[in-house]
C-alpha cells in the first residue's frame, strides 16, 4: 500500500511541475468532493460498527454455520449486503470466521457482498449515480458474489 502512496506523490509532483495551476485546481476540486462525501461515509461506518457491536459473534456463527450450505450462503450474502466494510477489515474478519468453522463458500459470499453490495450505502450511491444505476450495480454485484461463492465451493470441494 505504501508503494501506491509513493507513486501517487511522485505523479502529483510531476503534475505540479508540468502545470501548477491545473494541479492546484484539481486538488481543490478533489477536496470539495471529498468534503461532501466524508460525513455521510463516516455516518455509514458508525452505523455498521453499531450493528456489528449489537449483534454478537455467536449469533452470526449460529445462523451462518447452519447444516444447509445454501442457507448459510444465503445468510452470509444477506449479512454482507446489509453491511459494508473495507478490505483491511473484511479479510481479517473472514479469517476469524474461517477459524470458527464457517465454510469457504459462506465466507466467499460474505466477503464479496460485504465489499461489493451496499444496502447501507444506497443513499450515497443514489446521490452520485442515480437510482437505476445504483440498483443495477447492486444486482450485478450480488450475482457476481453468488457466482464467486459457488466457484469457491467447487474449488474447495464443498459442492458435489
Description of the molecule:
There is one protein chain. By secondary structure, the protein is mostly helical. The protein has a domain at 55-155. It has helices at 2-18, 20-54, 57-64, 69-82, 87-99, 104-116, 122-129, 131-155. The longest helix is centred in the first third of the chain and has 35 residues, at 20-54. The radius of gyration is 19 Å and the shape is elongated. The mean pLDDT is 86.
How would you briefly describe this protein structure?
With 160 residues, the protein is mainly α. It has helices at 2-18, 20-54, 57-64, 69-82, 87-99, 104-116, 122-129, 131-155.
How many H/I helices?
8
Q: Give the SSE string.
A: HHHHHHHH
Q: How does the helix and strand content classify structurally?
A: mainly alpha
**Estimated share of beta-strand residues:** under 5%
Report low-confidence residues grouped into runs of 5 or more.
none
Helix and strand topology:
Blueprint: H1 2-18, H2 20-54, H3 57-64, H4 69-82, H5 87-99, H6 104-116, H7 122-129, H8 131-155
Features:
83% helix; elongated; 160 residues; mainly alpha
Amino acid at each position: 500500500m505504501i508503494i501506491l502512496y509513493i507513486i501517487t506523490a511522485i505523479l502529483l509532483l510531476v503534475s505540479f511541475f508540468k502545470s501548477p495551476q491545473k494541479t492546484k485546481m484539481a486538488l481543490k476540486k478533489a477536496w470539495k468532493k471529498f468534503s461532501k462525501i466524508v460525513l455521510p461515509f463516516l455516518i455509514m461506518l458508525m452505523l455498521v460498527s453499531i450493528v456489528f457491536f449489537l449483534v454478537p459473534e455467536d449469533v452470526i456463527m449460529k445462523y451462518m454455520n447452519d447444516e444447509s450450505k445454501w442457507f448459510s450462503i444465503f445468510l452470509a450474502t444477506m449479512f454482507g449486503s446489509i453491511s459494508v466494510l473495507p478490505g483491511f477489515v473484511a479479510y481479517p474478519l473472514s479469517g476469524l470466521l474461517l477459524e470458527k468453522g464457517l465454510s469457504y463458500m459462506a465466507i466467499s459470499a460474505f466477503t464479496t457482498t460485504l465489499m461489493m453490495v451496499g444496502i447501507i450505502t444506497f443513499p450515497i450511491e443514489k446521490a452520485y449515480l442515480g437510482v437505476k444505476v445504483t440498483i443495477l450495480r447492486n444486482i450485478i454485484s450480488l450475482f457476481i458474489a453468488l457466482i464467486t461463492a459457488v466457484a469457491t465451493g467447487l474449488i474447495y470441494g464443498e459442492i458435489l
